[in-house]
Design brief:
20% strand
Length: 312
Amino acid sequence: MSINPIVKGLLDQMAQNPAPKLWELAPEDGRAMYMAMAQLLEPQDVPIGRSEDMTAPGPAGPIPVRVYTPMGAGNVVPALVYFHGGGFVIGNRDTHDALCRQLANESGFRVFSVDYRLAPEHPFPAAVEDAFAAVQWVETKAAELGIDPNSIAVAGDSAGGNLAAVVCQMAKAKGAPNIGFQLLIYPTTQARADTPSMKAFSQGYLLEKQSMDWFYNCYIPKDTDISDPRLSPLLASDLSGLPRAYIVTAGFDPLKDEGRAYADKLNRAGVAAVYVDYPDMIHGFFNMSGALPQVKTAIAAAAKAMKEALAQ
Protein backbone atom coordinates (compact mmCIF):
# COMPACT_ATOMS: atom_id res chain seq x y z
CA MET A 1 0.00 0.00 0.00
CA SER A 2 1.19 3.54 -0.71
CA ILE A 3 1.56 6.18 1.97
CA ASN A 4 -1.47 8.25 2.96
CA PRO A 5 -1.61 11.37 0.72
CA ILE A 6 -2.02 13.78 3.67
CA VAL A 7 0.96 12.17 5.41
CA LYS A 8 2.95 12.42 2.17
CA GLY A 9 2.06 16.10 1.98
CA LEU A 10 3.30 16.65 5.54
CA LEU A 11 6.56 14.80 4.82
CA ASP A 12 7.05 16.78 1.59
CA GLN A 13 6.51 20.04 3.50
CA MET A 14 9.08 18.98 6.09
CA ALA A 15 11.56 18.06 3.36
CA GLN A 16 11.12 21.48 1.70
CA ASN A 17 11.49 23.34 5.02
CA PRO A 18 13.94 21.11 6.93
CA ALA A 19 14.19 21.50 10.68
CA PRO A 20 17.41 20.59 12.48
CA LYS A 21 17.88 16.87 13.00
CA LEU A 22 17.25 15.65 16.55
CA TRP A 23 20.70 14.09 16.84
CA GLU A 24 22.27 17.48 16.06
CA LEU A 25 20.49 19.17 18.97
CA ALA A 26 20.94 19.42 22.71
CA PRO A 27 18.16 17.50 24.50
CA GLU A 28 16.41 20.68 25.67
CA ASP A 29 16.27 21.97 22.08
CA GLY A 30 14.92 18.63 20.88
CA ARG A 31 12.21 18.87 23.53
CA ALA A 32 11.23 22.36 22.39
CA MET A 33 11.08 21.23 18.74
CA TYR A 34 8.88 18.24 19.66
CA MET A 35 6.53 20.51 21.60
CA ALA A 36 6.27 22.88 18.63
CA MET A 37 5.42 19.97 16.33
CA ALA A 38 2.74 18.73 18.74
CA GLN A 39 1.14 22.18 18.72
CA LEU A 40 1.03 22.11 14.91
CA LEU A 41 -0.37 18.59 14.47
CA GLU A 42 -2.60 18.13 17.50
CA PRO A 43 -6.00 19.75 18.10
CA GLN A 44 -5.73 22.33 20.88
CA ASP A 45 -9.39 22.34 21.89
CA VAL A 46 -10.34 18.76 22.86
CA PRO A 47 -13.00 19.11 25.57
CA ILE A 48 -12.64 17.13 28.80
CA GLY A 49 -14.67 16.91 31.98
CA ARG A 50 -11.71 17.79 34.19
CA SER A 51 -7.92 17.94 33.88
CA GLU A 52 -5.77 18.33 36.99
CA ASP A 53 -2.06 18.05 37.75
CA MET A 54 -1.03 15.87 40.67
CA THR A 55 2.10 14.05 41.84
CA ALA A 56 2.76 10.40 42.57
CA PRO A 57 5.51 9.33 44.96
CA GLY A 58 8.52 8.06 43.05
CA PRO A 59 11.86 6.46 43.87
CA ALA A 60 13.69 9.76 43.29
CA GLY A 61 10.98 12.20 44.37
CA PRO A 62 7.51 13.22 43.22
CA ILE A 63 6.45 12.21 39.69
CA PRO A 64 4.21 14.75 37.91
CA VAL A 65 0.97 13.18 36.68
CA ARG A 66 -1.88 14.82 34.77
CA VAL A 67 -5.28 13.27 35.47
CA TYR A 68 -8.07 13.44 32.88
CA THR A 69 -11.64 12.73 33.92
CA PRO A 70 -14.11 12.44 31.04
CA MET A 71 -17.45 14.20 31.11
CA GLY A 72 -20.18 12.16 32.75
CA ALA A 73 -17.72 9.88 34.59
CA GLY A 74 -19.11 8.11 37.64
CA ASN A 75 -17.51 8.15 41.08
CA VAL A 76 -15.57 4.95 40.37
CA VAL A 77 -14.24 4.27 36.86
CA PRO A 78 -11.48 2.20 35.21
CA ALA A 79 -7.99 3.72 34.97
CA LEU A 80 -5.57 4.09 32.09
CA VAL A 81 -1.98 4.91 33.07
CA TYR A 82 -0.36 6.51 30.02
CA PHE A 83 3.36 6.88 29.21
CA HIS A 84 4.20 9.40 26.48
CA GLY A 85 6.58 8.73 23.60
CA GLY A 86 9.72 10.63 22.71
CA GLY A 87 12.59 8.15 22.82
CA PHE A 88 12.96 8.43 26.63
CA VAL A 89 14.51 11.88 25.96
CA ILE A 90 11.79 14.26 24.72
CA GLY A 91 8.03 14.61 25.24
CA ASN A 92 5.91 15.32 28.31
CA ARG A 93 2.30 15.63 29.46
CA ASP A 94 1.78 18.66 27.21
CA THR A 95 2.93 16.99 23.97
CA HIS A 96 0.38 14.21 24.59
CA ASP A 97 -2.40 16.28 26.13
CA ALA A 98 -4.81 16.01 23.18
CA LEU A 99 -4.26 12.25 22.80
CA CYS A 100 -4.89 11.60 26.50
CA ARG A 101 -8.06 13.70 26.38
CA GLN A 102 -9.27 11.69 23.39
CA LEU A 103 -8.49 8.37 25.08
CA ALA A 104 -10.37 9.47 28.21
CA ASN A 105 -13.39 10.63 26.22
CA GLU A 106 -13.54 7.54 23.99
CA SER A 107 -13.05 5.01 26.80
CA GLY A 108 -14.77 6.64 29.77
CA PHE A 109 -11.61 5.84 31.77
CA ARG A 110 -9.79 8.23 34.07
CA VAL A 111 -6.42 8.72 32.34
CA PHE A 112 -3.19 9.32 34.27
CA SER A 113 -0.45 10.80 32.04
CA VAL A 114 2.94 10.23 33.66
CA ASP A 115 5.87 12.66 33.34
CA TYR A 116 8.59 10.10 34.06
CA ARG A 117 12.21 11.24 34.31
CA LEU A 118 13.97 11.76 30.97
CA ALA A 119 17.44 10.89 29.70
CA PRO A 120 20.24 11.88 29.44
CA GLU A 121 19.79 13.65 32.77
CA HIS A 122 18.17 10.49 34.13
CA PRO A 123 19.27 7.44 32.13
CA PHE A 124 17.90 3.89 32.27
CA PRO A 125 16.36 2.58 34.49
CA ALA A 126 14.93 5.89 35.81
CA ALA A 127 11.98 5.96 33.37
CA VAL A 128 11.13 2.33 34.15
CA GLU A 129 11.22 2.95 37.90
CA ASP A 130 8.95 6.00 37.61
CA ALA A 131 6.51 4.21 35.29
CA PHE A 132 6.15 1.28 37.68
CA ALA A 133 5.81 3.58 40.71
CA ALA A 134 3.03 5.52 38.98
CA VAL A 135 0.97 2.37 38.37
CA GLN A 136 1.55 1.26 41.96
CA TRP A 137 0.27 4.65 43.15
CA VAL A 138 -2.88 4.44 41.05
CA GLU A 139 -3.69 0.99 42.45
CA THR A 140 -2.79 1.86 46.07
CA LYS A 141 -4.78 5.11 46.01
CA ALA A 142 -7.63 3.71 43.90
CA ALA A 143 -10.39 4.65 46.39
CA GLU A 144 -9.04 8.19 46.76
CA LEU A 145 -8.63 8.61 42.99
CA GLY A 146 -12.06 7.20 42.09
CA ILE A 147 -10.58 4.14 40.39
CA ASP A 148 -11.71 0.52 40.25
CA PRO A 149 -8.50 -1.30 41.31
CA ASN A 150 -9.58 -4.34 39.29
CA SER A 151 -9.82 -2.29 36.07
CA ILE A 152 -6.38 -0.78 35.45
CA ALA A 153 -4.84 -0.58 31.99
CA VAL A 154 -1.48 0.77 30.86
CA ALA A 155 -0.67 2.35 27.52
CA GLY A 156 2.01 4.27 25.71
CA ASP A 157 3.34 5.19 22.30
CA SER A 158 6.85 4.46 21.02
CA ALA A 159 9.17 4.69 24.07
CA GLY A 160 6.02 4.90 26.20
CA GLY A 161 4.83 1.65 24.62
CA ASN A 162 8.11 0.10 25.69
CA LEU A 163 7.50 1.31 29.27
CA ALA A 164 3.94 -0.03 29.26
CA ALA A 165 5.16 -3.47 28.12
CA VAL A 166 7.99 -3.47 30.68
CA VAL A 167 5.69 -2.44 33.54
CA CYS A 168 3.39 -5.38 32.71
CA GLN A 169 6.34 -7.77 32.86
CA MET A 170 7.49 -6.30 36.19
CA ALA A 171 4.00 -6.49 37.66
CA LYS A 172 3.76 -10.16 36.65
CA ALA A 173 7.13 -10.91 38.30
CA LYS A 174 6.23 -9.05 41.51
CA GLY A 175 2.61 -10.20 41.68
CA ALA A 176 1.34 -6.58 41.71
CA PRO A 177 -0.01 -4.15 40.70
CA ASN A 178 -2.95 -5.83 39.01
CA ILE A 179 -2.88 -4.70 35.36
CA GLY A 180 -5.71 -5.93 33.17
CA PHE A 181 -4.78 -4.61 29.73
CA GLN A 182 -1.89 -3.13 27.75
CA LEU A 183 -2.28 -0.79 24.78
CA LEU A 184 1.03 -0.53 22.92
CA ILE A 185 1.14 2.06 20.16
CA TYR A 186 4.06 1.49 17.73
CA PRO A 187 6.27 0.39 20.64
CA THR A 188 9.99 -0.13 20.59
CA THR A 189 10.43 -3.62 22.02
CA GLN A 190 14.11 -4.39 21.36
CA ALA A 191 16.89 -1.89 21.99
CA ARG A 192 19.00 -1.16 18.91
CA ALA A 193 17.07 -3.71 16.83
CA ASP A 194 18.29 -4.03 13.25
CA THR A 195 15.05 -5.14 11.61
CA PRO A 196 13.93 -5.03 7.94
CA SER A 197 11.55 -2.14 8.74
CA MET A 198 14.36 -0.21 10.45
CA LYS A 199 16.40 -0.56 7.26
CA ALA A 200 13.51 0.15 4.86
CA PHE A 201 12.32 3.31 6.64
CA SER A 202 15.61 4.52 8.11
CA GLN A 203 15.11 8.04 6.81
CA GLY A 204 12.44 10.26 5.31
CA TYR A 205 9.48 9.02 7.39
CA LEU A 206 9.67 11.38 10.41
CA LEU A 207 11.28 8.92 12.85
CA GLU A 208 14.74 8.09 11.53
CA LYS A 209 17.32 5.49 12.48
CA GLN A 210 19.81 8.18 13.49
CA SER A 211 17.21 9.60 15.87
CA MET A 212 16.74 6.14 17.39
CA ASP A 213 20.51 5.82 17.80
CA TRP A 214 20.60 9.22 19.51
CA PHE A 215 17.74 8.28 21.84
CA TYR A 216 19.45 5.07 22.86
CA ASN A 217 22.82 6.81 23.30
CA CYS A 218 21.12 9.24 25.69
CA TYR A 219 19.07 6.59 27.50
CA ILE A 220 21.30 3.54 27.86
CA PRO A 221 24.42 3.83 30.05
CA LYS A 222 27.63 2.35 28.68
CA ASP A 223 28.24 -1.32 29.48
CA THR A 224 24.49 -1.95 29.96
CA ASP A 225 23.25 -5.31 28.72
CA ILE A 226 20.75 -4.30 26.03
CA SER A 227 19.09 -7.71 26.24
CA ASP A 228 17.78 -6.75 29.70
CA PRO A 229 13.98 -7.18 29.34
CA ARG A 230 13.49 -3.77 31.00
CA LEU A 231 15.10 -2.35 27.83
CA SER A 232 14.05 -5.05 25.39
CA PRO A 233 10.74 -6.62 26.53
CA LEU A 234 10.69 -8.71 23.34
CA LEU A 235 13.71 -10.64 24.65
CA ALA A 236 12.06 -11.72 27.92
CA SER A 237 12.20 -15.52 28.12
CA ASP A 238 8.59 -16.04 29.21
CA LEU A 239 5.68 -13.81 28.17
CA SER A 240 2.93 -16.11 29.46
CA GLY A 241 0.53 -14.73 32.04
CA LEU A 242 0.80 -11.12 30.85
CA PRO A 243 -2.28 -8.88 30.40
CA ARG A 244 -4.26 -8.92 27.18
CA ALA A 245 -2.83 -6.58 24.60
CA TYR A 246 -3.77 -4.37 21.66
CA ILE A 247 -0.72 -3.50 19.60
CA VAL A 248 -0.74 -0.82 16.89
CA THR A 249 1.88 -0.36 14.19
CA ALA A 250 2.26 1.90 11.16
CA GLY A 251 3.22 0.64 7.71
CA PHE A 252 5.97 3.21 7.09
CA ASP A 253 7.58 3.06 10.54
CA PRO A 254 11.08 1.82 11.37
CA LEU A 255 9.60 0.30 14.55
CA LYS A 256 6.89 -1.70 12.76
CA ASP A 257 8.68 -5.05 12.97
CA GLU A 258 9.30 -4.68 16.72
CA GLY A 259 5.60 -4.18 17.43
CA ARG A 260 4.56 -7.05 15.20
CA ALA A 261 7.18 -9.38 16.73
CA TYR A 262 5.96 -8.59 20.24
CA ALA A 263 2.34 -9.30 19.29
CA ASP A 264 3.40 -12.61 17.71
CA LYS A 265 5.43 -13.64 20.77
CA LEU A 266 2.58 -12.74 23.15
CA ASN A 267 0.14 -14.83 21.12
CA ARG A 268 2.56 -17.77 21.03
CA ALA A 269 2.80 -17.52 24.83
CA GLY A 270 -0.99 -17.80 25.14
CA VAL A 271 -1.66 -14.10 25.74
CA ALA A 272 -4.59 -12.65 23.77
CA ALA A 273 -2.87 -9.97 21.71
CA VAL A 274 -4.71 -8.12 18.95
CA TYR A 275 -2.37 -6.74 16.29
CA VAL A 276 -3.56 -3.80 14.17
CA ASP A 277 -1.40 -2.32 11.43
CA TYR A 278 -2.26 0.96 9.70
CA PRO A 279 -0.40 0.30 6.44
CA ASP A 280 -0.49 3.85 5.03
CA MET A 281 0.65 5.62 8.22
CA ILE A 282 3.96 6.73 9.76
CA HIS A 283 5.36 6.66 13.26
CA GLY A 284 3.67 9.18 15.53
CA PHE A 285 0.33 9.29 13.70
CA PHE A 286 -1.72 8.94 16.92
CA ASN A 287 -0.45 12.45 17.74
CA MET A 288 -1.60 13.93 14.42
CA SER A 289 -5.38 14.03 14.76
CA GLY A 290 -5.36 17.77 14.09
CA ALA A 291 -4.01 17.07 10.59
CA LEU A 292 -5.31 13.55 9.91
CA PRO A 293 -9.06 13.04 10.45
CA GLN A 294 -8.76 9.22 10.33
CA VAL A 295 -6.60 9.20 13.47
CA LYS A 296 -9.72 9.76 15.58
CA THR A 297 -11.09 6.45 14.26
CA ALA A 298 -7.86 4.66 15.22
CA ILE A 299 -7.95 6.15 18.73
CA ALA A 300 -11.63 5.19 19.10
CA ALA A 301 -10.88 1.59 18.02
CA ALA A 302 -8.06 1.28 20.58
CA ALA A 303 -10.24 2.73 23.35
CA LYS A 304 -13.09 0.37 22.44
CA ALA A 305 -10.77 -2.66 22.63
CA MET A 306 -9.52 -1.54 26.03
CA LYS A 307 -13.01 -0.92 27.32
CA GLU A 308 -14.31 -4.29 26.13
CA ALA A 309 -11.31 -6.19 27.53
CA LEU A 310 -11.68 -4.73 31.02
CA ALA A 311 -15.45 -5.28 30.99
CA GLN A 312 -14.95 -9.05 30.69
